[in-house]
Design brief:
Layout lengths: L1 H11 L4 H21 L3 H10 L8 H10 L6 H5 L5 H11 L6 H8 L10 H11 L2 H6 L4 H9 L1 H18 L6 H10 L2
Helix pairs in contact: 2-3, 2-8, 3-7, 3-8, 6-7, 7-8, 8-11, 10-11, 11-12
Bound molecules: fe (ii) ion (2 copies).
């Protein structure tokens, strides 16, 4: 695991500084939430550091790279190729970084939409990305979700997706079906 992290840290140096900072803030929150919820903090840390590495590509390159590597692309993803940055990062992690850990690969793959039946690691990675300090500072509505993520991961995921889906609807944007499935799954 430390070898993988060393490789990733090296790779991170070539990413835009804003993106590097987001990855580090996500990993820091990921570690804190892991300790609170007794989740494997090493796996969470690696997943958080890696989750957005494919964002160095623009959306056209994302789609092209996904097609070249024969990743499955739904029509929602074709219409909104930014949705491919998780699956693509997971693919790179496996192929370029030789990561064989399925929990890490899944956490990265599904970090944008979530999905039903997420592992504890996936839940912590999902939320750490969504409510890292800079995002909360920019959108104070997220503070409630950050608070909730300290005590109840499932409720925090539901609340986040509920808010996000409403926002996307108001903006007239594409909604990934997995986000809707996850929202319904985590509703109590
Ligand atoms: Fe992302
Ligand atoms: Fe992110």
């Amino acid at each position: 695991m430390s070898k993988l992290l060393t490789k990733l840290n090296y790779y991170l140096n070539d990413l835009p500084v804003k993106l590097q900072n987001h990855l580090h803030r996500t990993a820091k929150l990921g570690r804190e939430l892991s300790l609170l919820h007794e989740v494997n903090d090493e796996k969470v840390f690696v997943s958080c550091i890696a989750h957005d590495i494919a964002k160095k590509l623009d959306i056209h390159e994302m789609l092209e790279e996904s097609k070249q590597n024969k990743l499955s692309i739904s029509y929602e993803e074709e219409k909104s190729p930014i949705l491919m940055h998780g699956p693509l990062a997971s693919f790179w992690l496996e192929k370029k970084f030789n990561c064989k850990d399925q929990e890490i690969l899944d956490s990265v793959f599904f970090h944008t939409t979530g999905r039903p039946y997420m592992s504890q690691i996936e839940k912590v990675v999902f939320l750490s990305d969504k409510v890292e300090p800079y995002k909360v500072q920019r959108n104070p509505d997220l503070l409630e979700i950050l608070d909730l993520s300290m005590s109840d991961l499932d409720s925090a995921i539901f609340k986040y997706l509920d808010m996000k889906i409403q926002h996307l609807l108001n903006q007239g944007q594409i909604i990934h079906p997995l986000a809707i499935e996850a929202r319904n799954f985590y509703m109590k």
